Amino acid sequence: MVSRKLVAIICLLLSAWEGVQAQESSALPALHKPRAEEFQHYLWPASTLADTRLAHSSASKAFRQNNRRLLASTNTAAQAENGEGVIEYRPVGFNIDSGDFATFFAIAHANKKATGIRVAPGTYHVNDNVPDQSHIYMRCGDDREDDFEVDFTGVFFYFTNWEHAGIQLENCTNIDIHGPFEQTYTNDQLGYAQGTIVGINEDALEYTVEVDEEYPGERVMMTQAIAISLFHNDTLLIKSPDPYMDIIVGGTDGRKSLGNRKYSFKARGVTPNVTVGDYFVARGNLGNNGLRFEKVKNCTARDMTIFHTDGFGVYEPFGRNNSFLNIQIRPFPYPLGRDGKLPLCSSSWDGFHITGAHSGTFIKNSYIVNTGDDAIATSGFYYLVAAVDPGQKSVTIATDREITFNPGDLLTFYAQDTERLGTQTITKMYSVEEPNEISGKTSEIATDFKYDDADFMKVFLDQWPANMNRLRFDDSASSPSNNGDGFAFVNNTIGNLRGRGVLCKSSNGVIAHNRFFNLKGFGIIMSPEHLWVESDFVNNVLVLNNTINSYAPGMWLGMAPSAEGMPGMYTNNYNVDFINNTVANCATSPFLLTSAAGITVTNTTFVNVLCTQKDMRNYDWEVNGTIVMVANVKGVTFSGNSVIKDARCKHPYGNYDHPVVLINATNVNGLVAKTSVDSLLQADSTGG
Ligand SMILES: *[C@@H]1O[C@H](CO)[C@@H](O)[C@H](O)[C@H]1NC(C)=O
Ligand SMILES: *[C@@H]1O[C@H](CO)[C@@H](O)[C@H](O)[C@H]1NC(C)=O
Ligand SMILES: *[C@@H]1O[C@H](CO)[C@@H](O)[C@H](O)[C@H]1NC(C)=O
Ligand SMILES: *[C@@H]1O[C@H](CO)[C@@H](O)[C@H](O)[C@H]1NC(C)=O
Ligand SMILES: *[C@@H]1O[C@H](CO)[C@@H](O)[C@H](O)[C@H]1NC(C)=O
Ligand SMILES: *[C@@H]1O[C@H](CO)[C@@H](O)[C@H](O)[C@H]1NC(C)=O
Ligand SMILES: *[C@@H]1O[C@H](CO)[C@@H](O)[C@H](O)[C@H]1NC(C)=O
Ligand SMILES: *[C@@H]1O[C@H](CO)[C@@H](O)[C@H](O)[C@H]1NC(C)=O
Ligand SMILES: *[C@@H]1O[C@H](CO)[C@@H](O)[C@H](O)[C@H]1NC(C)=O
Ligand SMILES: *[C@@H]1O[C@H](CO)[C@@H](O)[C@H](O)[C@H]1NC(C)=O
Ligand SMILES: *[C@@H]1O[C@H](CO)[C@@H](O)[C@H](O)[C@H]1NC(C)=O
Q: Is there an atom of ligand 1 within 6 Å of 465 CB?
């Protein structure tokens, strides 16, 4: 059902920009040839607080075997209970017993005379003595809300169990956790293995690899589902974006341990452009986080370095107004083994993953490289509509996620085709049983979601405007009250990773002064992802002074229902301003603007984009050679944008004189029409 008739289908090839400037200046980034910045993680002072003797498997093994001999800290619970000011936790030797530390923290935090704790500087092994919890576990159980400091200055944590997360702060308010401090896992407890591709049999989809010294080859290569990404063996840059996907190995069938750290495995499908000699990272799939802020309010983490975690670098579920300042997520700066090979993986999943925040997250001055997925991802959830009762102004919501909205919070409702039906306030809510009429049903919009597996919440709304009468079973809802709105991602350096730079599904925020390089997905993408049941469309965002220097696509504000799908008819994204951004070296989709209204695009500079001579469109509706693709947009104003192409653009295929293509766009300002053609021809064109 279409509530808004998208006016006449227009498609114009337009140009009103400063146009193509011939520039010889070498101040601009060169295609393919990495700039110093791209090596920054190796140029980064190759220093660490670690006493690396504790990294090795033998030390770690001896430590675990001697667990029972570990003494607790030299601080007793009594000191934590009676001390004043910042109370120091003094581990015995290089051992921290996680249970002892967790108890010390809980008691000190409950002591109102304590203003914080500090851990004596040093390198420590941390064991896993808190059942099912992280190594460093800090839980705030009382209602203390005044400031509390956690000072880890000069500390290096070696975590010793790959099945447990690093640091967790839980249910805390107003805590400032800071260093400079660093953390990783001992070598035998890493969540990934790396090495060199030594043999390829494409017909049999079989690859043979040799794992570098000191990595947990046997565990990762033989017992875990793995995804493998590839790196150039000279520059150590991730191969990008061809192949975009990893070599996916899936189950452990077809794995062989060939001895001398050699393994072979079968891939699920063909991955092009894998060469003998390529370096690889094989990531396991456990998902432990480096730093987890669990239901934490108004807390800060700053000056910390995460060298490795087998999951998200930083995970922030259901937070409120938290800040992350100068967080580095980057590989350990020294080789682990005698073979001299530098580590290539930091977090195995996203660098920062923010979900269901009640008030968004501030990430500033951070450095995020070599992650196994996106650098910064922020979103809420889509919930499904199980039943509707207009008479009671109520909707029964189904979800398999935790529900963290409350009475007083907002819910936005969408029809299945993403038409927005309205946003109302919850007046009361309670859990209910599954409505009989939907038993056995499966969702069409959230693939694989079985209603029988869900929890159900009946919510009552303050208003029920006529549009809401169109709400049906299996429509969706999201809550702007816990969608991460009110965020700021400022002055971060992000690159050399298998994913996107910023993946934003939150509103009322700022993405400014960030530098992106050598990504495998979009630099900045603002779009809900129904596939992951992650909400929502994006409103009121300023995208300012970001530089994206990447072979992968540049920026997209829109909606991506599926790889093949159309861009989404409803202009649900609105009020987004793009100012002073630079997009350089993209071989595909420099800028997509879809499903949006009230947009400004000012002072964007495109440098040597579309310089690979082939059709590199990501979607059928993109027009080959287009620099700015605008589809299903109502109201966009362009000014001061420019396209620069110089001699370093080896195989230009962009339409540099007519950079913008419009499909189903109305109220477009600042462009001059040069030619007009039939849109459907353009839209349906498969190129050629
Ligand atoms: C979480 O902290 C709040 C105060 O900040 C307190 O009221 C509540 O009891 C704590 N929850 C749990 C489960 O400890
Ligand atoms: C990458 O693989 C594709 C398909 O196998 C091939 O056509 C292309 O030439 C390869 N590119 C490079 C740089 O090897
Ligand atoms: C680096 O990879 C290339 C293929 O891309 C290969 O020819 C070369 O031998 C490799 N070098 C090393 C040191 O592995
Ligand atoms: C949140 O923390 C800031 C300091 O970072 C403090 O100024 C502010 O008062 C805190 N807010 C609340 C509600 O405690
Ligand atoms: C949110 O955090 C910022 C930065 O710490 C602080 O200045 C502000 O006061 C906080 N807001 C609230 C409502 O606590
Ligand atoms: C931006 O981040 C870098 C690296 O953390 C830092 O050196 C610089 O001071 C930051 N700039 C501003 C304006 O904060
Ligand atoms: C743009 O961002 C860069 C960091 O990437 C910063 O150095 C520069 O000062 C910013 N420019 C403006 C005008 O804010
Ligand atoms: C954009 O860049 C120009 C030139 O560097 C600068 O004058 C202007 O203030 C910038 N705009 C914003 C909003 O920072
Ligand atoms: C765009 O750039 C011009 C020239 O540098 C500058 O005067 C103007 O303020 C910029 N626009 C915005 C919105 O920053
Ligand atoms: C443009 O609008 C037409 C008619 O509503 C629709 O069929 C077509 O899919 C739209 N094009 C795109 C790229 O969404
Ligand atoms: C896309 O455009 C380039 C340059 O004009 C051309 O070489 C290529 O064949 C086109 N691809 C398709 C599929 O039309």
A: no
Q: Which two structure tokens, joined as six digits, stand for 362?
A: 């501030």
pLDDT at residue 533, as a whole number: 85
Q: Which residues contact 290 (CB under 8 A, 6 or more apart)?
A: 165, 166, 167, 183, 306, 308, 309, 311, 312, 313, 314, 329, 347
For the segment 295-310, the average pLDDT, to the nearest whole number, is 97
Contact in structure between 374 and 335 (CB atoms under 8 Å): no
- pLDDT, averaged across the chain: 88
Check whether 141 has a pLDDT greater than 90: no
* Atom 9 (ligand 7) nearest CA: 513
How far apart are alpha carbons 575 and 616 in whole angstroms?
A: 29
Query: How many A from CA of 670 to the centre of ligand 9?
Result: 15
Q: Are 481 and 405 in contact (CB under 8 A)?
A: yes
Is the separation of the CB atoms in 474 and 483 below 8 Å?
no
Pocket test for ligand 1, best of 137, 140, 171, 297 (most atoms within 8 A of CB): 171
What domains does the chain contain, in order, with CATH numbers?
52-188+287-349 (no CATH), 192-283 (2.40.10.170), 383-481 (2.40.30.10), 564-688 (no CATH)
Residue type, 573: N
Specify burial of residue 409 (Cβ count, 10 A radius: 0-12, 13-18, 19+).
middle
Q: What are the backbone angles phi and psi of residue 118, rounded to the nearest 5°?
A: -140, 150
Distance, in Å, from the CA atom of 457 to the CA atom of 112, rounded to the nearest integer, reads: 38
Contact 562/587 with Cβ under 8 angstroms? no
Helix (H, G, I), strand (E, B) or coil at 437: helix
The tens digit of pLDDT for each residue in 57-96 reads 666 677 766 655 555 666 677 889 999 999 999 988 888 9
